[in-house]
User: Fold this.
Amino acid sequence: MLRITNNIRNRLSTMRSLLRRLSQDQPKYEQIIEDYRLREVGVLGEERMKKKLAELRLQIPYVLLQDVNLADGEWKTQIDFLLITDRVCLVLEAKNISGELYFDDKTEEFYRFNQEGNKKYFPNPHYQVLKNIRFMENWFLRHNIPLPVTGAAFMTAKNSRLVTKPPVYRVYKLETLIEKISAMLSHFSSPLLSYDDISHLKNTFSFIQEHFKPPPLCNYYKLHHSEIETGVICPSCGQLPMEWKMIWLCPFCGFKSRDAHHSAIKDYLTIVKPTITNKEFRQFCHVTSVYTASRMLRLKCLDAKNLTSGRVYTLKESE
Assistant:
């Protein structure tokens, strides 16, 4: 059974919105573009790995989780796939890097050559796997779960080729995924968890993912709120701001909408800060009426709380 979250896709959507609201002259604009491209490539790699995992057939109880985000205080990690069986937990990482790939067994660097013949370095996936194995070992230990952890990384790009790789490195081609999983499982023959234990773990991880909220991108990239362009973005032509005239009207293409502010609210809560007030909504969406703003904020995707300073709205945890 595969349990999928939308954390990565939601983050990609938020980054697209940030790029539309950020000046290209902002010094971090190119960095954000590069981060977006890397995440987009990562999603494609995970999709290829998910298709390959559809071939998995195990005769033991297990659950397969995708895009698992966990934290232990300030130590935060993201795991592409987590295969939890009754005898071992497998950390499975997808790496969508194309070309001829090299590992230097002396410097432990991971790289490929670009068209100019220069080395382009990447984080070593072997050590990412070891870090996430160590995290899961600590997590299980803290929760009194007697489950060992192992894992590996798999190169998902169709034209990737591992030219040099130390034998101890847990990095393989995607085509070997099912066989490598079987080989790793063969080292653990004694069941340690019951079916109910695994079901409970699945529910625990699902609960954690449903309550997972990444920091707003302004915090993540150290951007000031004033650098974010305000206004409702036109769903048709992508320009902003739309104008409220008893309906949202785009002055650029003439498109009309009743609910174009929905995405603007989500932009504010995922880019600027995780709460919004009536006043902040009016400033961000260019609405003058307190009563109109109050009506627009009555959305199913929002939770409202009354504080001494007034009513505050947040995204529901399922969003």
Notes: The CA atoms of residues 203 and 209 lie 10 Å apart.
